[in-house]
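ARCHIVE CARD
Drawer: 12
Card no.: 0347
Subject: one protein chain, sequence and derived structure
Cross-reference: see card 0346
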Amino acid sequence: MKNEAGSNVLKLAVVILAAGRGERMNSSMPKVLHKIFDKPMLQHVVDSALKIKPSRIVVVAGRNLKEIKNSVRGKGILFAVQKEPKGTGDALSKARALLKDFKGTMLVLNGDAPLITAETLSRFLRLHRKERNKISLISFMASNPAAYGRVLRDNSGGILSVIEEKDATDAQKNIKEVNSGVYAIESDVLNLLKEIQLNRLKGEYYLTDIVRTAKNKGYNVKAYCIGSEDEMMGVNTMPELLKAQQAYRKGLINNLINEGIIFLDPDSIFISPGVIIRKGTTIYPDVYLEGKTRLGRGCTIYPNVHIIDSVISDGVVIKDSTVIEGSIIRAKAVVGPFAHIRPGSDIGSGAKIGNFVEVKKSIIGDMTKASHLSYLGDASVGKNVNIGAGTITCNYDGKEKHRTTIEDNVFIGSDTQLVAPVRVGKGAYVGAGSTITKPVPPMSLAVSRAEQRNVEGWTAKKKLTVKSGKLKVKSAKGK
């Protein structure tokens, strides 16, 4: 990368500290791999870092290096290892081996602070560079500062140092401004890491000590109180993880409300960060939208609906307690209540999939209706088809799956079994109660039933008696 003068230098590198063991999580999983919705905390931090386009990202991991490597996604990420937990100062030193040729600004982030945004990082870097600081950090005002290092300032408001909770005096513990753990450090002062002294109480090298060291040497050091408590929170326990999840969800919902989405009970909604919703859509309580789901304009999503990795087009209505996975629902279709649309399905415009209908890996044509109690699996169904209640496509022969094809304008009567592979031609009718095993020609009627036989007077010839708790059948003659 070239700077404004044209010389070849690396302008920005990001180091993410992720070596903490997370013992307070009471979990065998590495702390930074616990998820906020559908992504590990560390991945949230990596994604924010990628948005500001650094030349390199280095993740410093601990003993779980292999597991962390396998869990993190992102182009060009490098990994350093801190074998022994000797503190944040030591962790940053481990990253330096991968940044020997680096000249520019090093941004230090924490893998257990998943809510940091690219917007805040960009603002922070602008302030750091504008004032030509050698070291900058982000601070914030904490309602309960006990878990954080306090920012000590002089009478003019300049930062003096950061002091950890365990080392703070009673007066210092009352300070509400705390260190977020986000630093911008110029490469030409990274040698100050060597001057950080071991903290005897904790047996660690605190990165916070670099602030006091730099100030003592006369370097320009600033703390910018630009962070919010929710955005900067670190996660060290399961309750804190839950708190972070709630804060993240609240931020997503608030952004969507500002974009014109109507939530009847925002506190009850679960939405993954990859979900996109267009304006004018109304979402009822207890709805789960996950993965890469897309909702169009003017949709209505009723309570207890769960949609995963699916595309819901404009004007669609999804009724109560419906599950949709990996499928497409086209404009103005109505699905549910109590429907299950399984992966690989495509529901046509204006189609209706009603209560207790299951669709799997099937194409349902425009304006087609399957209103009640049916299973359509591995099927291609045309336009304007009526699927009667209790219809089943028998797609599995015990070894292989087979397809059923139903062409346009077909009427399928109730309680029909279509034994695949089979085709029902355009405009044909299938009588209720039929089992169809052979092709049905277009514009024809297919009926497959046993002949009905009525035995008149049969009931009068039989009667039920109860003897010794058992049912016995006697004829009218007493036999």
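Annotation on reverse: Confidence is low (pLDDT under 50) at residues 1-10, 464-468, 475-479. The longest strand covers residues 177-186.
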